[in-house]
Amino acid sequence: MLLEHAVPLLRDLELAALCPATEALYARLGWRLWRGPLFARRDGSMMPTREERVMVLRLPRTPALDFDLPLSVEWRSGEIW
Questions:
Q1: What is the pTM of this model?
Q2: Domains of the chain (ranges plus CATH)?
Q3: Terminal CA-CA length for the chain
């Protein structure tokens, strides 16, 4: 229920992404698994994050997506995604 109520708070973003512990739960709520390669951007370079599985949620401002293209996120300490 918390996730269902949190989604409207994201309406100003173009895309929501997370690294789920349980994919089935998020899939029921409309999140989709990203199939393309994943990277973290840091100091002008792209570091592959092959060990990660990421799900994304389309939001009202989300442009057309190709789930097979690369997807990247700004690097951060701890959980990157």
A1: 0.82
A2: 2-74 (3.40.630.30)
A3: 22
